[in-house]
Amino acid sequence: VTAEKGGFEHFMLKEIHEQPKAYRDTMRGRIDESGKKVVLPELKLTPEQIKGISKIQIVACGTAYHAGLVGRHAIESLVRIPVETDVASEYRYRSPIVTKDTLVIVVSQSGETADTLAALREAQSHGAHVLAITNVVGSSIARDADDVIVTLAGPEIAVASTKAYTSQLIAFYLLALYLAEVRGTQTPEEVARIIAAMQALPEQLESMLEKPDAIKAYAEQISKHEHLFFIGRGLDYAVAQEGSLKLKEISYIHSEAYAAGELKHGTLALIEEGIPVIALATQEAVLEKTVSNIKEVSARGADIMAITHEEHVASLLKSVNQAFAIPKTLPLLTPALSVVPLQLLSYYASLARGNDVDKPRNLAKSVTVE
Ligand code: AGP
């Protein structure tokens, strides 16, 4: 069993460490030799169809849904097509407006999630083209979808999804760049700049995985708490939601993720002396606003840990108790790095609490009931 785990104590830790490889494998063959263009030869979707898309809906569950939140941001910012995101168990019951010009993207690691499969069928029944992003080639979702982008993360065994999520992010970035090329919404220079930054991600991630000690120490600290909060804006909020789910799922610590600006509309009442708050502060465009929200919780005595870039550490330390710096990439690509400390945090918190990290209570790896 240890051999299966590649020398790691748990599948989850092994899978966290496999992410640089998963990034490389998911990008391989999908960037042309010049390194300046995305090619997705597997797509049946024609350039004419792509030009005719009026709306995109992204549908998935759990962590795959959280990848979809980042996917929405990537597509809307690069391609300027309106995107809706739905959790699959809600999608069918809100009588979604789906037409032949709607592209529906379903995201599923296993390709067997019942609600996601049902959403796929619902979308197809309205004539929509359904593109699946999945990690399992022969899965039900892969078979039924009109198009498939396979994430090449390799088998994911731990119930807590890590490398599947980050590979889904890579798939979304590639897809958004491809759609942007076809629709001419980004200059070739801009596309090349984003591709170059994507190609640097695996090494940046490797450098992060080399030094887990600060996160491990922080995980031991929070493992003694029963409640905590994640806050962030924009893509930081999307990552906060994933961090919160991961932590709940395996450490059983109750946590909530909030759009930082939303705190004062209710949740701020829960902030009291010593409560841990994890603040994601990586998105330059909203950094000042996030900092003012950090100050709001700091004034109420919260014990704040910030995830940010090196250049902001010194100034943030005026309002936060600790700061963890991640390598710098483009704001759009930052989730592919900023989620990693949160994965490690959940892992070490679960370990500190003596939980079964790979098989958390009450949960199954693949949810095949609705
Ligand atoms: C992730 O850590 C969870 N175990 C869960 O949210 C999972 O992402 C969800 O059940 C969707 O699974 P799928 O990607 O296989 O469809």
TrEMBL record:
Transferase listed as a keyword: yes
EC number(s) on file: 2.6.1.16
Domain SIS, chain residue ranges per copy: 46-185, 218-360
Catalyzed chemical reaction(s): D-fructose 6-phosphate + L-glutamine = D-glucosamine 6-phosphate + L-glutamate
The keyword Oxidoreductase is annotated on this UniProt entry: no
Compartment list: Cytoplasm
Species of origin: Paenibacillus cookii
Part of the full-length chain shown: 241 to 610 of 610
The protein's name: Glutamine--fructose-6-phosphate aminotransferase [isomerizing]
